[in-house]
Amino acid sequence: MAKRLAYDRVLFVVTLSLVALGLVMVFSASAMVSLEQAHSPYYFLLRQTVGAALGLALLWALMRLDYRKLKSPAVVYPALFATIVLLTIVFLLDRAHNTHRWIRLGILSLQPSELAKPTLILFLAFYLESRWQRINEWPVLRPILAYLALLAALVLFEPDLGTTVALVLIAAIMCYAAGLGWRYFGYAALASAPVLYWAVFHVAYRRERILAFLHPWSDPRGASFQIVQSLIAIGSGGFAGRGLMEGRQKLFFLPEPHTDFIFSVTSEELGLLGAALVVILFALFLARGLRVARRAPDAFGRFLAVGVTAMVVVQALINFSVVTGLVPTKGIPLPFISYGSSSLVFTLAAVGVLLNVSAQAN
């Protein structure tokens, strides 16, 4: 009789809970914006629901597909090639919101930078699986650095500094899990410092964000507008919140309330209790993801689990830090919760792989 696979139920329930909470908060945060832009309060909710349905279908399919079937050059290298091609195509298309981030086909849209994250994880897990014991040798590190540099450069020039930082952190965490020595992180920090300086201080709006971060109340109606409105939303929520749908900052005060700053709306409407619930759910995701990594039956599964867990948690930590003013403002969504079909679909697909690793674990 075939062995019945036992998936990590806690991880599965946590993921579904975050998706469900996300749909509720997307509707609450976007209803007025949607009514103004699309003449219907349900426009963003319907698009997010379609993304959730597609993402959950991929999650269900991938959690039942043996993850070891992904450990093949016929899977990994076409995925790398397709990602690079898509990231290149966006520069040939018209700008949207003054960036080259989306490929649009009618009502459909794709953000290739969201695909870059799971593709990077797949490549690193495949590459490190047979080389992790030699991770501190330069010949082993060079292909990792080359592919990461290519992905990071393409995403940075869209421009999307937030996703670029997320890609670098995911790769760093996976390499650390493989045993990479600290001195290499020091070398990488020194080498990337000039690039980071150029990316921040030679771009006007990023330089303004740094100044707004250092002095948020010096220009509350200008460069500091986003973070000030975010802090007002969080502070006005109190312990129990104003109530679902009762938030005020989303009423054209807080920019992008249904995307990058949806946690601010959650904090205002559901209060400290709701915000704490979101943080606890991501903490549970981290704990269960690391548990899956520890119990994975092989190195490939272990690195996949570390990468997917890092992808979700790193983005959540960056988003939390941005909306609470702990780091300068940068556009990065809160996984599962922020509006964005590409992010939701690819994140749920990656979690499906993580769940399959949990089912194969010891």
Question: How is this structure best described in words?
Answer:
The protein has one domain. A hairpin with a 2-residue loop joins strand 1 (103-105) and strand 2 (108-110). The mean pLDDT is 90. The chain has a two-stranded antiparallel sheet with strand order 1-2. The relative contact order is 0.17. Helix content is 67%, strand content 2%. It has helices at 9-38, 43-63, 73-89, 112-129, 138-156, 161-177, 182-201, 204-214, 225-236, 262-295, 299-323, 341-360; strands spanning 103-105, 108-110. With 362 residues, the chain is mainly α.
Question: Any descriptors?
Answer:
362 residues; two-stranded antiparallel sheet; 12 helices; mainly alpha
Fraction of helical residues: 55-70%
| 3D shape | globular
Distance between the termini: 19 Å
H/E order of the elements? HHHEEHHHHHHHHH
Biggest sheet: strands, sense, closure?
Answer: 2 strands, antiparallel
- What percent of residues are in strands? under 5%
Based on CA atoms alone, the radius of gyration comes out at 20 Å
Number of helices: 12
SSE class:
mainly alpha
Question: Which helices and strands, and how do they pair?
Answer:
Layout: H1 9-38, H2 43-63, H3 73-89, E1 103-105, E2 108-110, H4 112-129, H5 138-156, H6 161-177, H7 182-201, H8 204-214, H9 225-236, H10 262-295, H11 299-323, H12 341-360
Antiparallel strand pairs: 1-2
